[in-house]
């Protein structure tokens, strides 16, 4: 099993996220999206919308029109769907989200009751072509008899119906007009080979786990769950895939990261999930989910055989029947693993397939998982200096952000103004592979305004003020500003900024 220092893990993560090294800029926005696996969408626009900021952080001052065309193009290069949140996803990942489309269809409920006339909406799109909400009466519900007078969250039946049809895969959004989704039939837009691919829930989750692991570089089980927003039986499938090696990720130990929770004999309740075939050699595994390690949990030593209950496997153990193994940052169960995956120690190692028991033993003691390819060579190259969107996958899991960067982050959009500490839309500043500070940006004509600017505790202005200044000026140029004004800064920082910021 590979042992990583916290700094090594951080550099692997930055390279995987396209923020370290020249390779990240190759292939432009298309390759960036495929590297990240998902780019989150959000309606808020301060300097730019988040999906534009994500591309800017990695590629520099790419034209915003270029970014938009790369995401939404004809023929479709990407589509919008639910991953970590509402995201832009590579169109070739369409079939991987079949598990979620099926789950929505089975539930027949979104945030609202599905209206009765949803079939008529589908037939309208089939007959007349792509539509926006404006074509079907608007997105907002009526209020006091006035159409479209409801609040933004109070959707009209037509909007609910269109979104439901998108959730279940009858409709798809591959482009926007302004900021409005354009809904079209999936069969007209998604390539036929992807529409024909019929993957099981297990195949979907396993393949998405590989994508998430590649995008994150090094991740705990909780990081992977958060990336894909899995729960219940889907989370159990992920657990099984990790423990069996079917996910294609290898167990690692990162110094300074929390250890995998150990069994303590406390009572918990397990809920069986359906059997899953992991997809690797001999990889049939039976799932059980749990809120913690069940009472009487034990550790299996070499040669031991356990049936039922919970166990942490060591070399030679044979485990069957809902075996629970707690992973890095949550005590959830996984099934008994029956197939292995490659693992090796250190950068530059060759990844051979080990004995199944050895893989299980490594998995039992690891506190994280890594993309094997990310361990083959030490990350090298130039670090990006940039502002980072609050919805960037580098930082969208706040617990991971603090674990990797020592950076406690809260977006204060919905905090009352008088209670905000750092500002309305505070963006972290990345430099030298660290999150060094925060800026609350705004625009005033052609001036980028830093309403509040600060360095992280322990960092000196003498060392880091230039990086802050560079990040502000580069962002200003990208959004068409020709001046930067700092309204409020830490006392020790203000003097160092005066030379290049007014």
Description:
The protein is of the alpha+beta class and 502 residues long. It is 32% helix and 18% strand. The protein has 16 helices and 22 strands. The chain has helices at residues 6-16, 28-36, 50-59, 64-71, 98-107, 118-128, 157-167, 186-189, 192-196, 201-216, 221-228, 232-244, 356-365, 398-405, 461-478, 491-497; strands at residues 2-4, 39-40, 78-82, 86-90, 171-177, 180-185, 218-219, 250-254, 270-272, 276-277, 284-285, 288-290, 298-300, 305-307, 311-313, 318-320, 368-370, 386-387, 427-431, 434-444, 447-455, 483-486. Strand 10 and strand 11 form a beta hairpin. The chain is globular and about 65 Å long. The termini are far apart.
What are the key terms here?
single chain, 502 residues, alpha+beta, five-stranded mixed β-sheet, four-stranded mixed β-sheet, 16 helices, 22 strands, globular
Record field, number of beta strands: 22
Largest sheet: 5 strands, mixed
Radius of gyration: 24 Å
Supply the number of helical segments.
Answer: 16
Give the distance, in angstroms, between the N- and C-terminal Cα atoms.
52 Å
Percent range of helical residues: 25-40%
Average of pLDDT: 79
Q: Output the strand order for the largest sheet.
A: 18-19-20-21-22
What structural class do helix, strand and pairing data support?
Answer: alpha+beta
Strand coverage percent: 15-25%
Residue ranges: pLDDT <50 for 5 or more in a row?
Answer: 263-355
Shape annotation = globular
Quick take:
Helices cover 32% and strands 18% of the residues. It has helices at 6-16, 28-36, 50-59, 64-71, 98-107, 118-128, 157-167, 186-189, 192-196, 201-216, 221-228, 232-244, 356-365, 398-405, 461-478, 491-497, and strands spanning 2-4, 39-40, 78-82, 86-90, 171-177, 180-185, 218-219, 250-254, 270-272, 276-277, 284-285, 288-290, 298-300, 305-307, 311-313, 318-320, 368-370, 386-387, 427-431, 434-444, 447-455, 483-486.
């Amino acid at each position: 099993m590979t042992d990583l220092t916290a700094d090594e893990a951080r550099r692997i993560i930055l390279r995987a996220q396209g923020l370290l090294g020249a390779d990240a800029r190759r292939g432009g926005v298309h390759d960036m999206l495929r590297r990240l696996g998902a780019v989150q969408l959000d309606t808020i626009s301060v300097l730019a919308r988040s999906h534009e900021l994500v591309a800017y952080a990695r590629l520099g001052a790419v034209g915003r029109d270029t970014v938009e065309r790369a995401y939404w193009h004809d023929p479709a290069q990407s589509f919008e769907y639910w991953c970590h949140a509402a995201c832009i996803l590579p169109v070739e990942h369409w079939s991987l989200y079949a598990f979620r489309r099926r789950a929505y269809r089975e539930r027949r409920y979104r945030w609202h009751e599905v209206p009765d006339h949803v079939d008529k909406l589908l037939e309208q799109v089939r007959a007349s072509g792509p539509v926006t909400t404006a074509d079907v009466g608007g997105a907002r519900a009526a209020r006091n008899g006035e159409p479209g007078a409801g609040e933004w969250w109070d959707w009209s039946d037509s909007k609910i119906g269109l979104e439901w049809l998108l959730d279940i895969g009858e409709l798809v959004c591959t482009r926007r007009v302004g900021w409005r989704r354009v809904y079209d039939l999936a069969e007209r837009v998604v390539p036929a080979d992807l529409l024909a691919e019929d993957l099981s829930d297990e195949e979907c989750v396993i393949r998405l786990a590989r994508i998430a692991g590649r995008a994150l570089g090094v991740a705990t089980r909780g990081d992977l769950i958060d990336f894909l927003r899995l729960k219940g039986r889907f989370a159990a499938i992920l657990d099984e895939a990790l423990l069996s090696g079917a996910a294609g990720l290898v167990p690692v130990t990162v110094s300074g990261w929390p250890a995998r929770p150990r069994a303590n004999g406390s009572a918990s309740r397990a809920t069986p999930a359906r059997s899953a075939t992991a997809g690797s050699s001999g990889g049939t595994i039976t799932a059980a989910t749990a809120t913690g390690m069940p009472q009487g949990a034990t550790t299996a030593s070499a040669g031991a055989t356990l049936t039922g209950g919970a166990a942490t496997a060591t070399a030679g153990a044979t485990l069957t029947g809902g075996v629970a193994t707690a992973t890095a940052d949550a005590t959830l169960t996984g099934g008994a693993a029956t197939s292995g995956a490659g693992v090796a120690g250190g950068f530059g190692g060759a990844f051979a397939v080990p004995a199944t028991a050895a893989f299980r033993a490594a998995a039992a003691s690891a506190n994280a998982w890594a993309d094997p390819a990310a361990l083959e060579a030490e990350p090298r190259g130039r670090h990006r200096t940039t502002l980072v969107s609050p919805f960037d996958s580098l930082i969208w899991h706040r617990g991971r952000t603090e674990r990797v960067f020592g950076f406690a982050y809260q977006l204060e959009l919905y905090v009352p103004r008088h209670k905000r500490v750092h500002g309305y839309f505070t963006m972290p500043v990345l430099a030298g592979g660290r999150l060094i500070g925060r800026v609350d940006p705004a625009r005033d004509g052609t001036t980028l305004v830093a309403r509040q600017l600060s360095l992280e505790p322990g960092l000196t202005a003498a060392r880091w003020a230039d990086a802050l200044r560079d990040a502000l000026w580069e962002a200003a140029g990208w959004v068409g500003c020709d001046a930067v004004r700092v309204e409020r800064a830490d006392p020790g920082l203000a003097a160092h900024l005066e030379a290049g910021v007014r």
